[in-house]
Each structure stands twice: as structure tokens, then as C-alpha cells.
Write a structure and sequence with these properties.
There is one protein chain. This protein is of the alpha+beta class. It contains three helices and twelve strands; from the N terminus they run H-H-H-E-E-E-E-E-E-E-E-E-E-E-E. The radius of gyration is 19 Å and the shape is elongated.
């Protein structure tokens, strides 16, 4: 029996939550996300998902939910879509709990996630507004690599990375945009290296 739309949304939320936090959500966190005031309602849906073979529950554990992986019929895998990143001026990093399907050979060795691009400062690298970039989680980068960088802990941007003596230069791939110079260099944290781009033509 197929799960309902609401049950599927809860299942997807559990998967995205585990991707982001490295642990499953609690009953209360699931209830809060879906405006369910009764924990019994959450328990009922989890019972259905367990019966359908989508999850396994561990008794008497507050985060005792394990996802059971479904066999994918093709060569695609789902990776978390963690929000929006600016190809332009930095914008505030936003976390979401969605997912995108990507070819398995686009998934890096480290944790891999996707971000939706806003802006056209990287068009010479074939990264355009509305594209999804595939990012391999890293904390360091080599000069010239295209990275997702977090400035001052809040503002995310995708740019080409250049490390200076006491600054970082985040360079656009569009002559209309000036590079972003950040001093001191410690204000910049690398979130990952861009390893692929997906473009959808249905908009």
C-alpha cells in the first residue's frame, strides 16, 4: 500500500533532518514542523511508515527512528537541497528540507548537497540564476576553485576562491561584478566545493 501525501512529506522531513543534523527528529520536532498538537497523531503516522517498511523505530529512545533505504530503480540518488545561495551579492544562508535527484556519478566522496542559485555573477562558469549547484562538503579550498563560502557566519555566496596573505578574494565569473575582498581572512568559512550543475528548463 502506498503512503499518503502527508505521510510522504513526514518521511521526507525525517530524511532531510537526518541529513542536516546527523540524527533523526524527535516526536515533538515532527509535530512542530507539521503543526500537529497531538503526539499520538505523530505516533500513528510513524506506525504506518514502519508498517510500510519505510522506517524502523527503536523503543524508548527519543530519537529512535531509522530510515530504511529503498532500492532506486535507476542511477539517480537524492541529495538534500539546503536552500539558496547567491551568485551576486551575498545573501543570508537559508536551510530547507527539500531534496533533488542527481546522477550517482555527480555525488562526491564527502557529504554532498545541493543549493539553488540566485543571480548571474557566475555565468562564465555556466552557473546561472535558477540552477542547482552540487556541492561536496569541504572546509578548505585551493585558489581558483569555485566554492560556496559563508561570510561572517550568515551570508552565503558562490564564487571563485583566492587566498591572500591576510584576506580572501571571492571572484565572480562575470565581468559586470567586482570581486568581494574580505579582511581578515578568518571571516570567510568554506562550506564546500562546487562539483556539478543541474539546470531545469521547465521555467
Amino acid at each position: 500500500m502506498a503512503v499518503t501525501s502527508r505521510q510522504k512529506k513526514i518521511l521526507d522531513f525525517i530524511g532531510r533532518y537526518i541529513e542536516v543534523h546527523d540524527q533523526p527528529p524527535t516526536i515533538a520536532e515532527i509535530g512542530k514542523q507539521f503543526s500537529m498538537t497531538s503526539s499520538a497523531s505523530v505516533h500513528h503516522i510513524l506506525s504506518v511508515l514502519e508498517h510500510e517498511g519505510r522506517i524502523r523505530r527503536i523503543p524508548n529512545v527519543s530519537r529512535g527512528i531509522e530510515l530504511i533505504k529503498e532500492a532506486t530503480p535507476d542511477n539517480d540518488d537524492e541529495i538534500p537541497l539546503l536552500g539558496v545561495v547567491a551568485a551576486g551579492h551575498p545573501i543570508e544562508a537559508i536551510l530547507s528540507y527539500e531534496a533533488v535527484r542527481v546522477p550517482r556519478d555527480m555525488i562526491g566522496r564527502e557529504r554532498t548537497f545541493a543549493l539553488r542559485v540566485r543571480g548571474n555573477s557566475m555565468i562564465d562558469e555556466q552557473i546561472r540564476d535558477g540552477d542547482f549547484i552540487i556541492v561536496e562538503s569541504r572546509q578548505t579550498a585551493e585558489n581558483g576553485q569555485t566554492v560556496v563560502a559563508l561570510i561572517d557566519g550568515n551570508d552565503a555566496t558562490v564564487k571563485k576562491f583566492h587566498q591572500g596573505r591576510n584576506h580572501v578574494r571571492l571572484e565572480a565569473a562575470n565581468p559586470s561584478f567586482e570581486p568581494i575582498i574580505v579582511k581578515p581572512a578568518e571571516r570567510v568559512r568554506i562550506q564546500g566545493i562546487v562539483i556539478g550543475v543541474i539546470r531545469k528548463y521547465d521555467h
